[in-house]
Amino acid sequence: MRWNRVVILAPAIALAVVTGMGEGVRGATDPAMPLIGADSLDQEPMSGPDAWEAFGMGRVGLVVPYGRDGAVTAARARELRRAALEDRLGLSPAQRERLAAVRAAARRVATVRDEAIRLARVALDELLRDDVIDRPRIDRATDRVARIEADALRARVALALDERAVLTPAQRRMLRDELAR
To answer: Does the model's pTM come out above 0.85?
Structure first.
């Protein structure tokens, strides 16, 4: 099945490269155009014909090379939605720079925290697979995972507050109205 996709998509990708159509998708930066992707990391991104249709390309179209098998990843979809929202809010260049700095700092911390969560979950999985059930150790490992995940949630909330602090009161009202839709 996977090879069928490669054989079918190879001519389309070659055509996109030759004609310059591989730069993006029609309507991807249009605020009125619905963007594809998950609203959270728990959801899977859309791919295949459903993704093409969501981009307004019908059932036949070029695959956007953002993710595996042409999937528009959740991260890429969030990035596109964020850029469109920033355009609608009318951010100044200084505000865009401050937001980028806030997000970069949060991303550096999140990378370390995500690895800590992964390692804590691996340790918990090993305890659960062990032949000898040691409930106190399992409870401590579970608490560790929960504690790190709670820290991650607090950091996401702090990031949202730091981002909003960059905005003017009028932009905050516009943001609130946009998020209420």
So the answer is: no
Residue 67, pLDDT score: 58
Which domain does 36 fall in, by range? Answer: 2-74
Establish if 155 belongs to a structural domain.
yes
Q: Does 84 fall in a domain?
A: no
The DSSP-derived string for the chain is -HHHHHHHHHHHHHHHHHHTGGG--TTTT-TTSPPPS-SSTTSPPP-HHHHHHHTT-TTS-PPPTTSGGG---HHHHHHHHHHHHHHHHT--HHHHHHHHHHHHHHHHHHHHHHHHHHHHHHHHHHHHHSSS--HHHHHHHHHHHHHHHHHHHHHHHHHHHHHHHHS-HHHHHHHHHHHH-
- Identify whether 9 is part of a domain: yes
10-residue block means of pLDDT along the chain (181 residues)? 42 42 41 40 48 45 50 81 90 94 94 95 96 95 97 95 94 90 82
